[in-house]
Amino acid sequence: MPNLNSEISTPKSICIMGLGYIGLPTAAILARKGYDVHGVDVRVEVVEKINRGEIHIHEPGLGELVEEVVRAGKLQASTTPREADVFFICVPTPFNADKSPDLSYVRAASEAVRPYVRQGNLVILESTSPPKTTQETVVPLAIPEHLQVGKDVFVAYCPERVLPGRILIEAVENDRIVGGVTPACTQLVQKFYETFVTGAVLPTTAVAAEITKLAENAFRDVNIAYANELSMLADDLGADPFEVIELANRHPRVNILRPGPGVGGHCISVDPWFLAHAAPNHSSLIKTARMVNDSKPQFVVDKVLKLAREIESPVIGCLGLAYKPDVDDFRESPSLEIVIQLQKACVGEVLACDPYAGPMHCSGVTLVSLEELLRQSDIVLLLTDHKPFCELPVNLLQGKQVIDTRGVWKEEPRVVLHGENSRESNRAWPPAA
Ligand SMILES: NC(=O)c1ccc[n+]([C@@H]2O[C@H](COP(=O)([O-])OP(=O)(O)OC[C@H]3O[C@@H](n4cnc5c(N)ncnc54)[C@H](O)[C@@H]3O)[C@@H](O)[C@H]2O)c1
């Protein structure tokens, strides 16, 4: 292998394609580190906002950091790429209606950088991608034909594994995987990540890195599916699922996760399908887990409707629309899906409250304040365990029918998603002693 360290100059400039939850924090972190960062997004309003030093997403600490690096001239945004030493691709990778991967954004971003890629550049895919995307999509579309990968330019897949709400910390401190298309690609990209990541930077191949990222999310999905299946099973049999899980977890080698209203977000509910699609004959567990988790919102809807039909002109108040607590992300959210299904069922009025939701996030949903929701609702349905909901004084639920899909209001008296024969069944808050 050539002495790459001496042949390739130290990167100074960065071009990041996609300025969302991954691209923008990455851009800001690199700008803070001293790199000259050019961020690219196809949405003009996002570009304009960032250039004013503002942000369009909710992420702790990001607003201040973006303001600082934009003011310092280290980060600027545009709708078009430009020449740089390192290119990042951080665009969405959703799935199609048939659950097959939609690589159109990765293709578009790869094609967009191609005219700007020069000898000595690094091209890094961070979007969560199906196996072989780096080799079979990014290389042919992003790399000009006259440049040889592993000799002239260096291409790698480096997945993100950050937790929304902690992105600025985890993007720096988490261990990272660098999967190069060739060993030279791995070596150079690993060296570059080591300039801004304090966690270990672990070298591997592109395809191993792609599978690893998907395997991480499929692992989470399978474990959550077990909790969700158990919660439905326990509920049907008349037991409190959260109590069953709490008791089972007293076994020294058992650690069942908490069930919820389903699995959402654009990672855990999407990525396992990429594995299933790539290896249809060896993914029955992964596919089953997806189906179990996808069935949970309907289970919740059926429970609520059953209860609502016992009340004249019921008002159903739904707490939370985001897919997880304390974030403004509504993509693939089971909470939102449940609210929409309840509205479609036309059994009564459906109100919703989410501190992070605006009309543009949740069109068609009747958004009200927490006070208004609690004042009007006969049934209070906890869907997303945002902090203000978890901290709700229980006396405010007095006289309501309460369904807690997250098991957060678990101090006595416990009211949970309940089975027909459960001793917890359909009782008002607080239950009679
Ligand atoms: N959000 C997370 O917590 C997380 C964690 C790990 C991995 N990922 C993965 O990272 C990738 C990006 O996710 P995200 O959450 O940042 O998505 P996002 O939707 O928040 O951001 C993507 C951005 O890319 C822009 N974009 C689309 N096409 C473009 C193009 N051709 N050129 C330039 N910009 C373009 C969009 O306008 C958007 O602003 C996805 O593959 C996702 O699965 C996300």
Counting DSSP E segments of at least 2 residues, the number of strands comes to 12
Strand content: 5-15%
What hetero molecules are bound to the protein chains?
Answer: nicotinamide-adenine-dinucleotide
Order of H and E elements: HEHEHHEEHEHEHEHEHHHHEHEHEHE
Rg over alpha carbons: 24 Å
Number of helices: 15
| Head-to-tail CA distance between termini | 75 Å
So what's the overall shape?
globular
Main beta sheet strand tally, sense and closure: 8 strands, mixed
Residue stretches low in confidence (pLDDT < 50, at least 5 long) are 412-433
Query: What integer is the average pLDDT?
Result: 92
Can I get a quick summary?
The chain is of the alpha/beta class and 433 residues long. Helices cover 38% and strands 12% of the residues.
Describe the structure using short key phrases.
433 residues; alpha/beta; Rossmann fold; 2 domains; eight-stranded mixed beta sheet; 15 helices; 12% strand; disordered C terminus; binds nicotinamide-adenine-dinucleotide
Write the layout of secondary structure elements.
Elements: H1 4-7, E1 13-17, H2 23-32, E2 36-40, H3 44-51, H4 62-71, E3 75-78, E4 86-89, H5 104-113, E5 122-125, H6 133-142, E6 154-157, H7 167-173, E7 176-180, H8 183-193, E8 201-205, H9 206-236, H10 241-248, H11 271-278, H12 284-308, E9 315-319, H13 334-345, E10 349-353, H14 370-376, E11 379-382, H15 387-390, E12 401-404
Parallel strand pairs: 1-2, 1-4, 2-3, 4-5, 5-6, 7-8, 9-10, 9-11, 11-12
Antiparallel strand pairs: 6-7
Helix pairs in contact: 2-4, 5-6, 9-10, 9-11, 9-12, 11-12, 12-13
